[in-house]
Structure formats: structure tokens, C-alpha cells
């Protein structure tokens, strides 16, 4: 068997002939029977009905051949499998969904029941259905850098191909439940520590690890002591109560039923794998039919649509960032992490040192290993002498929101930038039309508006103006996708798209504070709607100085302005109390925390007054062409502000609710013209 195993390499897999009856698998017959997953016409493996149907046939062949070991691998460089094929189940309902799930379970059960050792060798992303395929094998060998997880909870679902009962049997059930409930991945070393992986090796040692698995010398986890203790219903009930309490804080049952369905499933059936399997199928099918899941699946497609807007090559290898403040540092660090060569300048040396420390922290938070972190930091170059200006393919200006300062920098760049280089501004409040005349080349100037913190906020607004070249906008969108962010193509407008829609939410909360509402009641009302944080907490997060600038720009440029800025807000900013970054703003972060739990019985009138102005502004942006279509508006708000994904976006919510124009009229009668329904409501449908 040694000679056969020595031949099992990815390069050989790509040369091996594909079995004539399969499109998605490459098969190697022999003493070591190897199945290479290689989904046709795509660079990423997904677990589809056709993939499982072909696997079923191949498993029958393997059972007949009775090899010493069956190995399942991926021929894709990027990873083992990215999950189930969402296109294949998104529109399934009822019995049709149950039947398809049962068929998938039967294939993985067949794999689990084979009378010889089975080994999944996993690398890169091993998620969802791909993880469940690996769990059906006797052993899992991970290659350095692998990450395994169940992201189904982000679609309003839980694992549906056996993950619930196989993972809770394999490792500590509480750890297994946490992985499924939070949707995060277990990276290589953590996966090995938990017992998901029986071995974690570099590629060159895979053959030896397979040999150890085939010979029975590879250690295999069994969940440990706690797994045995939690086989009783009473013990599971205690753990389940704690899980429900934690889940309710993060994702209330009223909005997100999937975590609670998963907890119920484990509590009721965790002691019997057969029962849990049948309950998993029924629960998955029921969740699939829920409004929350359908909206979250819609959000998945919205993400894909944004990514599609950034297809193509950016031609950007070297990025130069001007300004090493919080935003400039994050932009520079993130770009370097994603493979770009980055220089960053500032008038002071201290912020440049802070940039390197910030970059190291982000690398650690994103689970980069030592070599990856070293390489990222090597690509990030402090540039106090501004040498990068002359060599960069893209210059990103990220200095404070002062027109005269930006224009001065643009004048300096006129003779410094190389031909063909793009200049982008990260402004959040200034109109590009007011800046463009000062730029070296208006055709190669645009907005590239990141959101804070860049390492956690996936959206970037790619902002056009009348003189911007299409090639410039296309390259910036491709650059955004290339650094693993989502480009939203928007037009120059006061506040662009996100801030135009968000500002009424923030400023209305300020006015309501003046009227006697408490900070906590306003924030908790917004949390009860599903917002990730209340408007006052968000204002502190953004920075009260930034809020003031955005409100000023909107007052000067809109037909119907946002609420008037209270004098006390200007006073706070003048005193340096600008929010979380200063330690004090609307909340004093040295002595108090903003509320994190929603109001139990929030006043719908309060919610409407906060939320509906955002819907109204979204309609305005659609009518005025700030975004090309409704889906871009909804996607940008979800990924740029955390608008509740389960509600599908402000325009989707408006279509479902239907009564918003009438409610806005009532608010207008009571509070003034800022609530007047936009003319675009008549065309929303």
C-alpha cells in the first residue's frame, strides 16, 4: 500500500482520468481508493444533489472493490468545499425538501457504514455540507490553514446533512453546539484541539497521515467525559437553558428561530443519533419555509450581486494611503493583509507606529499564522518621506473631513503621481463635485468610502461623479473585491448612499432626546426592531464629529433635510467628547456601557419614528439614481450598517409592510416636513 499512497498528491489528481459517469469527481482506483471532489465549471466545490448522487455510485464501486482505505479529497486549490449548493435548496418546500434531505442523508450514511477505513483530507474552507461530508468519514486529516465550520445559522438554518448529530457525538457536545450556534469556523489548531481533526499536517506529510489512519494508529476522538454526561436529557436541559439565554442576547427568538430550533433538537434527541437524524431533517425543512430564512437566503444572493459588481482585474499592486488615523491605518493594514504592497504616510511618526501595531492586532484577530502575519507586515511600509506617492497604482486619501486640507494634498499630488494612477478619497461627508476641480486628473478620481472598522465592516462605497472614467470605477470596484470587501457602486450625492439613509435615524434620536426620551429607551427600541446597536450607541461609534459633518452636508444639499442638530451636540464635539474613540460622547465609556438587550415591549411609535425615515431616504436614493437598483440599496444597508438581515433591507421591508407612506404622513402632521413621504413611493411597487 505504501507505493499507492505515495502517489496520492494533488498534482496527480488533476492528471488522473475522470470517471466517465461523473462530472464532479475524479477517481483513482487501487489499493488506496481516492475520490477527488472537483466540481465542474467552477473554482469552488459545493455539495449539490448531483455531487451526492455521483458520490453514491462511487461508494458502491468502492464497496465492491473493498480497498484498504478510501480517501476523499478536493482537487480545488482554494479549499475542500464551501458548503451546500444554495441554488439547489433555496426554493424547496415541505415534502420536496424532506425527500431531498433524506436522499442526501442516505449517501452520507452509506459512506459512514463502509467496512474499511475512510479518510477525509481537508484543506482551506471546509464548510457546511463539505464539513458534513468529512464528518461521515472515520478520520479527518487537516492540512495547515484549514478552517471548518457550519455557517448555516447565517441563513436562518442549522446543519441539515447530519452535522447536528455527528459533530455532537464526535467532540464535546457543548463545543459542537457553540460552533453551530455562532456560525464561526474552527481554524486548524483549534479544530485539532477540539478533536474534529485526528491529525493536522503540512501537505508533505499527508501520505504518512493517511497510512497511519489506514493502519489504525491514528488517534480518534470520542467527545470526552462531557459527551457521556450529556447523553441524559436532564443534563442536556441544563446546558440548553444556558444556550437559550445566550442566544436570546445575540439573536432573539422572535427574529431568528434557527438557534432555538437547534437547541431544542439537541435537548430533545441528543441521546439518540437515529432520532436526532430524523428530527434534524424535519427541523431543517420547517426552517426553510420561514420568512426569516427566506430573507437571509435573499441576503446571501445580495452579497453575491455586490461581489459581481467588482469582477475583473484591478491592475493595482501598490497602494499608497495618505493619513494614518484610525481609518487610514485600517485601510492600509487590511489591504496589506489581502496581498497588496502598501505605503502609508502621515505628518507625525507616532501614528505610523500605531498603524503597524494595529495591523498586527488585526492579523491576530483574523487567525493569520506567524508566516502570514510576517508577510502582511512586510508588505505594509511606513512612509514618512512620502516616497510611495510616485510609485503607487492607487492613492487613497484618508485625512480629516476638511476641504482645504484635501485640496492642498491634491495639489501636491499633481506632479507626484505616476501616469495612470488613480486617486480615491475616503470622505464620508464631502461631495466629490466640490473636490474634483482640485484633483490631478478628474477622470482618475473617485470615492472609495470604507466603513469603520474596515477589518470588520465588509462594505465599501465606490462613488462616481460626472467626470469619472468608467475604467476608474471598474478598477476601484475590482480592487474592493480583491481585498475581500463588497463594492456598492453609488453616485455622488449628499451623504452618498449609506450616510444619506442613516443620518435621519441618528439625528431623529438626538431630537427625541431633547423631547425627554432616555438614551437607553431609544437604543433599546432600535434593538427590538433588530438593529445591531441603537442610534445613540452608533453615533458614538461613528464619532459625533463625523455625525455633525454629515448632518451639515445633508442640510445643505437635500430637498427635505434631516432633523435640526441640537446645540448641545456641537458643544460636546467642541469639548472633545466625540464618542467611543474619545472615551466619552453620548455615553461615558469610562463608567457605563450602552444597552445591549432589546426592549421587551417596545413602543411601535418610537420604532417608526426612528426607522421609517431611513426607508423614506432609501426611496429617495432609488428615485434619484444614487444606487442603480433597489437590491443595491438593501444590500448596502445590510452590509454597511447592519440593518437587520432577517428583514431583507429597508426597501424590501417597505414593500412587505405597505403602510409606511400613510404612517409617514401622520408623522409629518405631528413632527413636521422632514417626514414627508418621498415622491418615489408611488413607483416602489
UniProtKB/TrEMBL annotation:
Q: Where is the composition biased (Basic and acidic residues)?
A: 18-27
**Pathway(s):** Lipid metabolism; fatty acid beta-oxidation
| Gene Ontology annotations of biological process type | fatty acid beta-oxidation
Reactions it catalyzes: a (3S)-3-hydroxyacyl-CoA + NAD(+) = a 3-oxoacyl-CoA + NADH + H(+)
Protein name, per record? enoyl-CoA hydratase
Q: Which SUPFAM superfamilies match?
A: 6-phosphogluconate dehydrogenase C-terminal domain-like, ClpP/crotonase, NAD(P)-binding Rossmann-fold domains
Which keywords describe this protein according to UniProt? Fatty acid metabolism, Lipid degradation, Lipid metabolism, Lyase, Multifunctional enzyme, NAD, Oxidoreductase
Q: Where is this region: Disordered?
A: 1-27, 571-601
Amino acid at each position: 500500500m505504501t507505493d499507492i499512497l505515495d502517489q496520492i498528491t494533488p498534482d496527480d489528481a488533476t492528471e488522473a482520468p475522470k470517471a466517465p459517469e461523473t462530472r464532479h469527481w475524479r477517481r483513482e482506483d487501487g489499493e488506496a481508493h481516492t475520490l477527488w471532489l472537483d466540481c465542474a465549471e467552477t473554482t469552488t466545490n459545493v455539495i449539490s444533489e448531483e455531487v451526492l448522487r455521483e458520490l453514491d455510485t462511487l461508494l458502491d464501486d468502492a464497496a465492491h472493490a473493498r480497498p484498504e482505505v478510501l480517501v476523499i479529497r478536493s482537487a480545488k486549490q482554494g479549499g475542500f468545499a464551501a458548503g451546500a449548493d444554495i441554488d439547489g435548496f433555496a426554493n424547496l418546500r415541505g415534502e420536496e425538501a424532506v425527500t431531498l434531505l433524506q436522499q442526501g442523508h442516505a449517501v452520507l450514511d452509506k459512506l459512514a457504514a463502509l467496512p474499511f477505513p475512510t479518510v477525509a483530507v481537508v484543506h482551506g474552507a471546509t464548510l457546511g455540507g463539505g464539513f458534513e461530508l468529512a464528518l461521515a468519514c472515520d478520520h479527518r486529516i487537516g492540512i495547515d490553514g484549514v478552517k471548518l465550520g457550519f455557517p448555516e445559522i447565517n441563513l436562518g438554518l442549522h446543519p441539515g446533512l447530519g452535522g447536528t448529530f455527528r459533530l455532537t457525538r464526535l467532540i464535546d457536545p457543548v463545543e459542537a453546539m457553540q460552533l453551530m450556534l455562532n456560525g464561526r469556523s474552527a481554524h486548524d489548531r483549534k479544530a485539532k484541539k477540539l478533536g474534529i481533526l485526528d491529525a493536522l499536517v503540512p501537505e508533505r506529510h499527508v501520505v504518512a497521515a493517511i497510512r497511519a489512519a489506514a493502519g489504525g494508529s491514528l488517534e480518534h476522538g470520542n467527545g470526552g467525559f462531557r459527551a457521556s454526561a450529556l447523553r441524559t436529557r436532564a443534563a442536556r436541559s441544563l446546558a440548553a437553558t444556558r444556550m437559550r439565554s445566550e442566544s436570546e442576547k445575540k439573536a432573539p427568538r422572535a427574529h431568528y428561530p434557527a438557534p432555538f430550533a437547534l437547541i431544542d433538537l439537541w435537548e430533545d434527541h441528543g441521546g439518540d443519533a437515529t432520532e436526532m437524524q430524523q428530527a434534524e431533517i424535519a427541523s431543517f425543512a420547517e426552517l426553510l419555509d420561514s420568512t426569516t430564512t427566506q430573507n437571509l437566503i435573499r441576503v446571501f444572493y445580495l452579497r453575491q450581486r455586490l461581489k459581481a459588481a467588482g469582477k475583473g482585474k484591478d491592475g493595482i499592486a501598490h497602494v499608497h494611503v495618505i493619513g494614518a488615523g484610525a481609518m487610514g491605518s485600517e485601510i492600509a493594514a487590511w489591504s496589506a493583509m489581502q496581498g497588496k504592497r502598501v505605503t502609508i504616510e502621515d505628518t507625525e511618526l507616532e501614528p505610523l507606529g500605531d498603524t503597524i501595531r494595529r495591523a498586527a492586532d488585526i492579523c491576530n484577530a483574523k487567525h493569520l499564522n506567524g508566516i502570514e502575519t510576517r508577510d502582511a507586515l512586510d508588505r505594509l511600509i511606513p512612509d514618512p518621506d512620502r516616497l510611495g506617492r510616485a510609485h503607487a497604482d492607487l492613492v487613497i486619501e484618508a485625512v480629516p473631513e476638511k476641504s482645504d486640507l484635501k485640496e492642498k494634498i491634491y495639489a501636491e499630488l499633481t506632479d507626484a503621481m505616476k501616469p495612470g494612477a488613480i486617486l480615491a478619497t475616503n470622505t464620508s461627508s464631502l461631495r466629490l463635485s466640490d473636490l474634483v476641480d482640485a484633483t490631478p486628473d478628474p477622470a482618475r478620481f473617485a470615492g472609495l468610502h470604507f466603513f469603520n472598522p474596515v477589518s470588520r465592516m465588509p462594505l465599501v462605497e465606490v462613488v462616481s461623479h460626472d467626470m469619472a472614467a468608467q475604467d476608474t470605477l471598474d478598477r476601484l470596484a475590482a480592487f474592493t473585491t480583491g481585498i475581500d470587501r463588497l463594492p456598492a457602486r453609488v453616485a455622488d450625492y449628499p451623504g452618498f448612499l449609506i450616510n444619506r439613509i442613516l443620518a435621519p435615524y441618528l439625528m431623529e434620536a438626538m431630537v427625541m432626546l431633547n423631547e425627554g426620551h432616555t438614551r437607553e429607551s431609544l437604543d433599546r427600541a432600535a434593538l427590538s426592531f433588530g438593529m445591531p446597536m441603537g442610534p445613540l450607541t452608533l453615533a458614538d461609534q461613528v464619532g459625533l464629529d463625523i455625525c455633525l459633518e454629515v448632518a451639515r452636508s445633508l442640510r445643505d444639499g437635500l430637498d427635505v433635510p434631516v432633523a435640526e442638530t441640537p446645540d448641545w451636540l456641537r458643544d460636546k464635539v467642541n469639548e472633545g467628547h466625540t464618542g467611543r474613540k474619545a472615551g466619552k460622547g453620548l455615553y461615558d465609556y469610562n463608567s457605563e456601557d450602552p444597552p445591549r438587550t432589546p426592549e421587551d415591549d417596545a413602543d411601535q411609535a418610537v420604532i417608526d419614528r426612528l426607522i421609517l425615515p431611513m426607508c423614506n431616504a432609501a426611496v429617495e436614493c432609488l428615485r434619484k439614481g444614487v444606487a442603480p437598483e433597489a437590491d443595491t440599496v438593501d444590500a448596502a444597508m445590510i452590509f454597511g450598517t447592519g440593518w437587520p438581515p432577517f428583514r431583507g433591507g429597508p426597501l424590501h421591508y417597505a414593500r412587505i409592510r405597505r403602510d409606511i407612506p400613510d404612517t409617514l404622513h401622520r408623522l409629518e402632521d405631528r413632527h413636521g416636513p422632514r417626514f414627508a413621504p418621498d415622491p418615489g413611493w408611488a413607483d416602489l411597487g
